[in-house]
Design a protein that fits this description.
Helices cover 36% and strands 21% of the residues. It has 363 residues and is of the alpha+beta class.
Length: 363
């Protein structure tokens, strides 16, 4: 018997799919091949799925975790959706997508559905965005949102992340008021340098004087008018635009602190500017209960240079829930449309045997 080429096989598969679609009205009750319409979308829950592994070969952590998930029928033998896993070659993360099949203008397409994201040995992956751009890894504090298979579920800025970690060192540390203010000063100074603005009153006066001398070489009358305006400006506003530079404001706030206050953990609240005049957002100890503590990742919690897996963080995305909703709140039962892959993801979330094997990989 002559063996079919890959192209011939693909053609036969496409013809089979088209035949199924064309015969749905006449044979759906007998065969069970029924499309499902949800809103404006037509889903194909019966269509045999496939698994696409795009994880880089050198991403050994991702390959190991995905191999465990593939032992589950909903991942290794999907029906009505496609499973795709990919990574970036850094051995630090991977994402697994569950994409339902839809019929769109006569063509079978994949649509973004549920997803599962893993990060490996990356303490920073516990957090969402930093408190402010440019100040380095300083964040509002994480809170405990629950427990997952004996490991903590943290919440940060509305997003949950599970930390599979067996070490004794804390994964994040407090940020002192001095550390936070120093970071603000440096960030503003860097911004100031890139903008070309003077950094002090002396520099500001020198810049004005330089402009005056340059103008004097070309137009003495204009130079004298400029000098007159410059003198009037400096009399009414001696520091010029420097008074508006936040670096000086932050530095003054730090200077007024006692040594003990500098060492205290920083607590941030957006109302601090109006209530206390603190541009930094810092609040005194009396307001700590209503403010957010500031923390930083403890990058030293994981052994330096180790090739072993010491931390896995997991983030879940359900397509029929709000973006930052907790997987623990998902109500299973809806298998129509995008609910199909959400139910699959929730089944994995509850699969204790699967997660026991995954957590065993963590040292």
């Amino acid at each position: 018997m002559r063996r079919l080429s890959g192209t011939a096989k693909r053609r036969i598969h496409l013809v089979t799919v088209l035949a199924l679609l064309l015969n749905l009205p006449a044979h759906s009750q007998d065969t069970g091949y029924q499309t499902v319409t949800v809103g404006d979308d037509t889903f194909l829950p019966y269509l045999p799925g496939k698994v696409v592994n795009r994880i880089a070969k050198n991403d050994v952590f991702a390959q190991r975790i995905f191999a465990v998930l593939l032992t589950q029928k909903t991942v290794g033998a999907p029906v009505g959706y496609e499973v795709e896993a990919y990574s970036d070659g850094s051995n630090r993360s991977c994402t697994i997508l569950f994409m339902p099949y839809l019929l769109q203008e006569g063509a079978v397409i994949r649509a973004p559905g549920s997803s599962l994201h893993f990060s490996f040995n990356d303490v920073g992956s516990l957090f969402a965005q930093t408190l402010q751009p440019g100040i380095g890894p300083i964040y509002t504090s994480l809170s405990i949102a629950g427990d997952f298979m004996g490991f903590p579920v943290f919440e940060h800025e509305g997003r949950e992340v599970t930390a599979i970690y067996k070490g004794k060192e804390a994964l994040f540390l407090p940020v002192s008021q001095e550390e936070y203010l120093t970071a603000l000063v440096k960030a503003e100074e860097k911004k100031q340098q890139s903008s070309g603005l003077p950094g002090s009153e002396k520099e500001y006066r020198q810049e004005l004087e330089k402009a005056y001398r340059a103008l004097l070489q070309t137009d003495k009358n204009a130079a004298e008018e400029f000098k007159k305006a410059m003198d009037e400006h400096l009399q009414t506003n001696p520091q010029g635009i420097v008074t508006e530079q936040l670096s000086a404001v932050y530095q003054r706030e730090l200077t007024h602190m006692t040594p003990a206050e500098r060492k205290m953990q920083a607590f941030y609240a957006i109302y601090a500017v109006e209530k206390y005049g603190n541009s930094s957002g810092l609040v005194p100890a009396s307001d700590h209960p209503t403010a957010q503590a500031l923390v930083k990742p403890n990058f030293d919690a994981l052994p330096a240079g180790s090739q072993a897996l010491h931390l896995i963080t997991v983030k879940w995305q359900f397509s029929t829930m709000e973006k930052n909703a907790s997987p623990a709140l998902y109500m299973p039962g809806n298998t129509s449309g995008y609910g199909r892959t959400d139910t699959v993801l929730h089944g994995l979330y509850q699969n204790k045997d699967c997660w026991t094997r995954i957590t065993e990989a963590v040292k």
